[in-house]
Amino acid sequence: MTAGTDERLSVMLSAGEASGDLHGSTLCRALQDLRPGVRLCGMGGARMKAAGMEMIADPTSRAVVGINEALGRIPELYRAYRHLVRRLHAERPHVLVLIDFPDFNLYLARQARRAGVPVVYFIPPQIWAWRPGRIRTIARRVNRVLAVLPFERELYEAAGVPVDFVGHPLLDVLPLDLGRDEARRRLGLDPGDVVVGLLPGSRREEVTRLLPAMLAATKRLASARPAPRFVLGLASTVDRRIIDTMLQPGSSGAPPVAVVEQRTYEVMAGADVIFVASGTATLEAALLGAPMVVCYRVSRVTEAMVRLLVTVPWASLPNIVSGRPIVPEILQDQVSGERLAVEALKLLDGPLAATAQRTAFKDLRGRLGEPGVARRAAVAVIEAARVACTRGMMFPA
After folding, report:
1. Which of 78, 159, 234, 316 could serve as 282's disulfide partner, Cβ 3.0–4.6 Å?
2. 335 and 343 in contact (C-beta within 8 Å)?
3. How far apart are CA 206 and CA 199, in angstroms?
C-alpha cells in the first residue's frame, strides 16, 4: 500500500545509533500524539520499536567508533540500506525523517528524493565541526533541517537550506530537576561522601581505550583524598562482562569501583567530579551540572583523518556550544591516569574551578532551547508531509 492510497499518515524514520534511537523514540511518540494512527516504519533500535515503529533494520546495538572499526559494519549497513530503499520505492511514505548518522542517511536521502518522498533531517550532521562541504549535499537532498544547536540555523540559512531551530532533544529526556542528594540516595551514597563518577563511553572500543586510564586515575585520587567513592555508570550498549574483566581484583590495582546500570544520570548528578568520554554524554553531564574531565582516544588512522577534516578547536560539546574551553579535554596520547587525576583534583580541591564550570553550564542550558523539542519536531515533520501533497501525494485528513 502506497502513501498515495493509504488513509493514514505514513512516516519512515532512520536512526543508526543508540542516541538516535532515544531521540527517535520521543519523536515517534510525539507524532502519535499529534496524529493518532500514524504509520511508522524504519531503522532504529529497541526504544523506537517500543514507541510503535515497525522495525525494518536495527544497527544500534553494534555502533562503533573510528574508521577502521566502521569498515566491518559495511555489509550489515548495506543490507539495511537495501531494505529501506525497497520500502521507500514500494510504499512511498509521506515523509522520511533522518536522525543523525549522516554517512548512511544522506545516501538514503538521495533515494527518497528519487522516489518523490520529502526528507526532514532531525539532528543534522555536525558540519560546523568537520566536513563542512556536506552542506551542499544536504541542500540538494533535504527539504527541511530541524536544527538542535542555536548556531546551526545561521549556517543552514546562509546555504539556502530551509531550517527550524527546535532545541536540543536532550531537554525532553533528561531529569533536569534531579538534585545531588536525590541522585546519591538512589545510588546508596552518603551526602558527605567524595564521589567520583566514571563514564567510559557507550561503545566497546571507547571503554577498552579509556577505562584503564580512568582506573589508574582512581588509584591516584584514592591516595590523595580521604576515602573517595568511585561509581561507574554502565551504558546499556556495553557488555557488563567487559567491565567486570577490567575490574577483577589485581587486574588494575584500582580501589573498589561500584558499577551501576540504568543509573547514568544519577552518577552525573550525584558526583563531585566525573571522568567522561567525549560525546553526547558530555552535554548530558553539563545539563545536569556535573563538573567533568573529558577524555577521548581513537585509532591512529582515525586520528589522522580527523585532523584533516575537523574545523573546530575542541572535541567536547560543552566547549563547542559555548565557544570557549569551559571543561578540560585530554585526548589521544595525553590520556593517562596522571593527567586525569591532576584535572580532577583541581575540581575537587579548588571549589572556584567547579563553580566556574557549573556557572558556564547554566549559560549553556539557556542556549539549547526549551523542553517540548519532540513535539516541535513532529509538527515540522507533519507540515513537510502536508507540503508534499502539492506535488501530487495525497495527504490524509
Report:
1. 316
2. no
3. 10
Residue intervals in the chain for CATH 3.40.50.2000: 10-173+371-391, 180-367
- CATH code of 10-173+371-391, in short, is 3.40.50.2000
SS3 assignment, position 316: coil
Place domain 180-367 in its CATH homologous superfamily. Answer: Glycogen Phosphorylase B; (3.40.50.2000)
Lowest mean pLDDT among 98-102, 254-258, 289-293: 254-258
pLDDT of residue 250: 58
Q: Which of 39, 55, 53 is nearest to 5 (CA)?
A: 39
Q: In sequence order, what E strands does 158-222 have?
A: 163-165, 195-199
What pTM does this model have? Answer: 0.88
What pLDDT is attached to residue 350?
Answer: 83
Going by C-alpha positions, the residue among 132, 133, 82, 145 that lies closest to residue 108 is: 82
How far, in Å, CA of 358 to CA of 268, rounded?
13
